[in-house]
Amino acid sequence: FLEIEKLGNGAFGEVVKVRHKKDGQSYAVKHIQNINEQENEINILASLNNKNVVRYHNSFSENGKHYIHMEMADMTLQDWMDKRDLSDDFHNFMSENVQNGTHYMKKCPSIKCYVCPNYMQKEKFDWFEESLRIGREVVSGLVYLHRCDIVHNDIKPDNIFVSYRDCKVLVQLGDFGLATRLDQVNQPLQSDGTPIVGFGGKSGDLLSAGVVLQELLLKKKDLKFKNLEKLILSLLDDDSSKRPTAEKLLEILDFCIEKNIDAGHSENAENQLYERWPEVFKN
How far apart are the C-alpha atoms of 283 and 210, rounded to whole Å? Predict the structure, then answer.
């Protein structure tokens, strides 16, 4: 590999962008101090196979250093939100910020053909709809992890990755340095040997997802969607028993996307939200 640039610091290691000398492709490689200490992360990553989880390629040691070799994304969700808040034009956003963005725009010269048939009638790209779809994909990744009885324990915008592939947005959960299996007997340890505390199980992941969705959907005024505020507040409730499961959260977001619920219209769909999930929307 040829090291290109530092991408950031993950749990227990530094992450860098590299280019493979033979295939010329870019990848993310995590430098770790002790491969034995990160055996849990490697085992969890190697067991996962889902489009909403960063793909693990392998782990290896070279010249006394240890590495985890993973799929490379275009940007973190934090980067995506920062750039979104500074951009009004999707074409410029794609060409300036997305890997192979120029090729993407040649393939999709009209914003109307973006992503899927739901966008075919759109004269103007809707940042809120894209933000909602990204939020939906984050939750889809959580559903997969929780069905595998895996808790991420570190859901945040810097650990969520956004890419654009084949005219679709791809959202993936990454950095499993703090992840645990629900059947693990031993609590994971920090690098100094002390136990990691503060894990909240699946409900803790949902609390973190609520913080992400709050920033993604409600932070920017022109993206504010009042019909989702109660949903996000339920995720942030101090009483973890009131938080919806990842499966229920995904159902609600899919419903919102299907019905094209937006602030100021679709009153019938809004009423259906209250009828189908009263425990969330009528509190």
Answer: 17
The verdict on residue 116 lying in a domain is no
Domain presence at residue 155: yes
- Torsion, CA 161, CA 243, CA 231, CA 218, rounded to 10: -50
- Same domain, yes or no, for 133 and 28? no
DSSP3 helix / strand / coil % (the chain, rounded to 5): 45, 20, 35
Domain span at residue 37 reads 2-71
- The predicted model gives 221-249 an average pLDDT of 81
Q: Are residues 160 and 57 in the same domain?
A: no
How many residues in total does the chain contain? 283
Paired residues of 171 in beta bridges: 162
Q: Which residues are annotated as a binding site for ATP?
A: 30
**Within this chain, do residues 206 and 273 fall inside the same structural domain, yes or no?**
yes
Name, in order, each residue with C-beta under 8 angstroms of 77's C-beta and a sequence gap of 6 or more: 134, 138, 157, 158, 160, 161, 162, 171, 212, 216
Q: Which range has the top average pLDDT, 13-17, 130-134, 191-195, 221-225?
A: 130-134
- Binding residues, by number, are 30
Domain count, the chain: 2
